């Protein structure tokens, strides 16, 4: 095993244990196997490439251990990343050295936070934030900054957990929707789980993100989660000639079973298009 992968597994296990009480090392090994292999990490890029968004200047906020970025850099895409955690940047630098990636790639991984992006206005054609906004200090400030550095005519893709559901994906536990933090702390103590992880989480929801975005006049907002759900309902309704209410129930049972059984979280999946004016 390479030193960088060994380092990644160790850090993932220590963070998982400290913040969320994950004692099973196989979980950190599984995640490390996925994150370390940037050559095969193409799932998130499929949508970006399908709509031609890979052709411009791209920002990944926050870039984590760089898997998404490395895959893009290997394909010569013009991508930059912001990441606040030192150990993740240390891992990235270690990996670049080990795999003999170009040294200039290190300059594309920038230490910083989403609330204060070190870029000029209208700097990027495409910005993606994946499983990040639930961890930041100020969600609205991060969105303001991303909109600021997004070019006119550019796109912003927001993906995060929607806490209007019955599952918490970091603790891997059933949770009440937007559970009161004091109640959540008692719940976790009963389960002998650390409560420190609660301090790293915001109860992000599609509704709260859409409310922040509503203050901007020069953007188009596409709620992909709602769009995909409505398409499934229309498909079931049309195929089986059912009332919409029945179709909605069937979609919940067929497509969203794990969400309603508190085994999986709902997702915020929003695209923002910035106008040219």
From TrEMBL:
The cross-references to InterPro entries, in alphabetical order and at most eight, read: Methyltransf_11, SAM-dependent_MTases_sf
- What CDD domains would the database entry show? AdoMet_MTases
Task: Give the superkingdom in one word.
Answer: Bacteria
Please give the Gene3D superfamilies that the UniProt record associates with this protein.
Vaccinia Virus protein VP39
- Which intervals hold domain Methyltransferase type? 59-156
- GO MF terms held by the record: S-adenosylmethionine-dependent methyltransferase activity
This protein's name: Methyltransferase type 11 domain-containing protein
Q: Give the taxonomic lineage as stored in the record.
A: Bacteria, Pseudomonadati, Campylobacterota, Epsilonproteobacteria, Campylobacterales
């Amino acid at each position: 095993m390479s030193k960088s992968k060994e380092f990644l597994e160790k850090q993932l296990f220590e963070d998982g244990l400290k913040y969320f009480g994950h004692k099973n090392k196989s979980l950190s090994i599984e995640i490390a196997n996925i994150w370390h292999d940037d050559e095969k990490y193409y799932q998130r890029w499929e949508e970006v490439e399908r709509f031609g968004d890979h052709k411009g200047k791209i920002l990944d906020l926050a870039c984590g251990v760089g898997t998404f970025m490395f895959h893009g850099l290997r394909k010569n895409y013009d991508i930059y990343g912001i990441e606040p955690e030192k150990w993740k940047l240390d891992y990235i630098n270690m990996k670049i050295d080990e795999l003999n990636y170009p040294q200039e790639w290190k300059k594309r991984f920038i230490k910083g936070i989403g609330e204060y992006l070190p870029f000029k206005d209208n700097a990027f054609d495409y910005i993606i934030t994946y499983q990040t906004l639930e961890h930041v200090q100020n969600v609205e400030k991060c969105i303001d900054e991303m909109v600021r550095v997004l070019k006119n005519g550019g796109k912003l893709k927001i993906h995060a957990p929607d806490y209007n559901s019955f599952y918490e994906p970091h603790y891997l536990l059933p949770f009440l929707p937007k559970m009161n933090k004091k109640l959540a702390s008692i719940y976790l103590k009963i389960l002998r789980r650390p409560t420190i992880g609660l301090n790293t989480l915001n109860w992000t929801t599609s509704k709260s993100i859409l409310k922040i975005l509503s203050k901007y006049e020069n953007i188009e907002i596409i709620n992909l989660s709602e769009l995909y759900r409505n398409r499934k309902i229309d498909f079931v309704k049309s195929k089986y000639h059912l009332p919409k209410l029945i179709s909605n129930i069937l979609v919940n049972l067929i497509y969203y079973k794990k969400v309603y059984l508190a085994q999986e979280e709902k997702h915020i999946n929003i695209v923002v298009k910035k106008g040219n004016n």
